[in-house]
């Protein structure tokens, strides 16, 4: 453990924090202490209240009356101005950057550098560059944000957050910052966060990824159903005890055992090109789970979209059951039996204003109820087992989807496609933002679909997931197939090694 200073008052201390949404209690009497200079991880199942807590700290939600807070021993009011007064800085998942502006301009967006009232463009770039350099971030301050890799943008966002405003005792709050980062890029962020910590600043880090918690964290606070169940140093915890604290029960194994039982080729692609993919041929057999991994920019992220038709196909043929699937036509892909669960849940996968029930029944509307007329009751009956199986919380299928936590929305998307009757599944980051308990339910569902003869393509940036779940993992490098790693040889290290061997993508070299 690094710089935790026990005799200083907490950098931030909140007590008695509760929040009720329309009669539903999201937080109950929560207490959180952040010691100066520590990396404090906030963990909990989907819907346990992490985002609600962060949003209260940010002043976005008003808590129920009765809460108290202090910053380095001085009382502050929990409310819209608390973040500003306590030096809290937030890195949200969308990073809040403007793509068309330069790094330097983005760094000064929304505020000026402390002590600098006016700078010429050149000085401004030079000054921003000096700040980035001082953190060891090798990004060109004159470059346009849109040209940078996501990893580089994340690093800029961190440095920017710390350089806003005067507070020298800043507290950085990161909400699942690695959700869309490739494995190797995560290490760049961790190096920066350790640098931030070495400067004595405090970090609150929200994640579902336990490896990250052990790699980075000093202490952890765990929420369950809106209450704090433990705040502990990580030094005294192991993986299993942490899972038990999160779930309130033991989890036998995260990844289920499975036998390989692949049949005939169901999904085939030949000389596929589009996005970052230059030339890729692949085949997924009935009952097979094929992984697709690669660094950002390798093309891995384009594969499910090209197969489904949600990104333009520049060349190549896609076949399902031997029949051609036309390019750029998602509706035709669905008719051919393909289900696609995209990673960009908010933008592509969910209808926030619709109910859970409507979101699940969306792709298979016909044939429910007599005369193909859908009664709401019949639909509700049909959906209930899916809500239960994937542990969607709250259980009420009539809830508006947008009011569910992020991970619970993801469970709804998976439930939708598992129910849809498709026999080819393209799953992009299916467990991103999903807690350990629900992950296992999703893995079980994937195996069940495979055992039922479906062909499954699993694109993931979680190499451990790829190594544990797939019969074969395709590693993309620079738009082509770099390696095809059979299950028996697939380990996280091997997949990472294959991803970065020979060439790293130009973009990632930026940092
Ligand atoms: N605006 C809202 N209206 C109604 N209920 C809400 C709202 N925001 C959150 N909730 C409810 O509060 C509870 C806590 O949700 P929250 O988003 O804080 O969970 P979380 O721990 O961040 O989950 P995840 O890991 O899935 O992001 C959930 O039951 C959720 O449905």
Domains (count) = 4
Shape: globular
Structural class: alpha/beta
How far apart, in Å, are the first and last alpha carbons? 27 Å
| Second-tier CATH architecture of the largest domain | 3-Layer(aba) Sandwich
Unique ligands: adenosine-5'-triphosphate
The biggest sheet, with number of strands, parallel, antiparallel or mixed sense and barrel status, is: 6 strands, mixed
Unreliable spans are 1-5, 365-372, 503-511
> Mind telling me the C-alpha Rg?
24 Å
CATH topology of the largest domain: Rossmann fold
Please give the count of helices.
18
Number-wise, the strands total 20
**What proportion of the residues is helical, as a percent range?**
25-40%
Chain-averaged pLDDT: 85
Which CATH class of the largest domain applies here? Alpha Beta
Spatial order of the strands in the main sheet? Answer: 6-7-8-3-9-10
- CATH H-level superfamily title of the largest domain: P-loop containing nucleotide triphosphate hydrolases
Oligomer: single chain
Task: Tell me the β content.
Answer: 15-25%
Protein name: Ribose transport system ATP-binding protein
InterPro entries: AAA+_ATPase (IPR003593), ABC_carbohydrate_import_ATPase (IPR050107), ABC_transporter-like_ATP-bd (IPR003439), ABC_transporter-like_CS (IPR017871), P-loop_NTPase (IPR027417)
Keywords: ATP-binding, Nucleotide-binding, Repeat, Transport
Domain ABC transporter: 12-250, 249-503
């Amino acid at each position: 453990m690094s710089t935790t200073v026990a005799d200083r008052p907490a950098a931030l201390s909140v007590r008695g924090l509760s929040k009720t949404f329309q009669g539903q209690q999201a937080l109950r009497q929560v207490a959180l202490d952040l010691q100066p200079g520590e990396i404090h991880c906030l963990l909990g199942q989907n819907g346990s209240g992490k985002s609600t807590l962060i949003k209260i700290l940010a002043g976005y939600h008003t808590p129920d009356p009765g809460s108290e807070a202090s910053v380095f021993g001085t009382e502050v009011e929990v409310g819209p101005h608390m973040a500003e007064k306590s030096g809290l800085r937030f890195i949200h998942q969308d990073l809040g950057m403007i793509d068309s502006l330069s790094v330097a301009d983005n760094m000064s967006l929304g505020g000026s550098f402390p002590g600098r009232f006016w700078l010429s463009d050149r000085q401004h770039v030079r000054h921003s560059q000096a700040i980035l350099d001082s953190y060891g971030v090798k990004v060109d301050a004159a470059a346009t944000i849109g040209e940078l890799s996501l990893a580089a943008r994340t690093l800029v966002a961190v440095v920017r957050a710390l350089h806003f405003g005067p507070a020298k005792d800043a507290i950085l709050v990161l909400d699942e910052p690695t959700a869309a980062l490739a494995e190797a890029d995560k290490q760049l962020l961790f190096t920066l966060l350790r640098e931030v910590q070495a400067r004595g600043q405090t970090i609150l880090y929200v994640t579902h990824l336990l490896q990250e918690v052990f790699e980075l964290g000093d202490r952890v606070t765990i929420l369950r159903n809106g209450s704090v169940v433990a705040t502990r140093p990580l030094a005294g915890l192991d993986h299993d005890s942490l899972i038990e604290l999160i779930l309130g029960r033991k989890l036998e194994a995260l990844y289920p055992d499975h036998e390989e039982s692949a049949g005939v080729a169901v999904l085939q692609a030949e000389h596929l090109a589009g996005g970052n993919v230059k030339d890729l041929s692949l085949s997924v057999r009935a009952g097979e789970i094929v992984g697709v991994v690669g660094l950002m920019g390798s093309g891995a992220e384009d594969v499910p979209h090209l197969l489904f038709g949600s990104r333009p196909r520049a060349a190549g043929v896609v076949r399902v059951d031997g029949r051609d699937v036309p390019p750029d036509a998602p509706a035709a892909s669905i008719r051919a039996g393909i289900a696609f669960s995209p990673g960009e849940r908010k933008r592509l996968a969910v209808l926030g204003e619709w109910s859970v029930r409507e979101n699940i029944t969306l792709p298979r509307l016909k044939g429910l109820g007599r005369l193909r007329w859908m009664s709401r009751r019949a639909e509700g009956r049909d959906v209930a087992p899916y809500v239960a199986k994937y542990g969607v919380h709250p259980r009420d299928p009539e809830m508006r989807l947008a009011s569910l936590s992020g991970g619970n929305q993801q469970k709804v998307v998976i439930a939708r496609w598992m129910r849809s009757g498709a026999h080819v599944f393209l799953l992009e980051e299916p467990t991103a933002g999903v807690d350990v308990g629900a992950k296992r339910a999703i893995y079980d569902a994937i195996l069940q679909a495979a055992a039922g003869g479906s062909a499954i393509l699993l694109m993931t940036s979680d190499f451990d997931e790829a190594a544990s779940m797939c019969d074969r993992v395709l590693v993309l490098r620079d738009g082509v197939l770099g390696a095809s790693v059979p299950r028996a040889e697939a380990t996280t290290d091997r997949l990472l090694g294959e991803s970065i061997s020979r060439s790293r993508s130009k973009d990632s070299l930026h940092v």
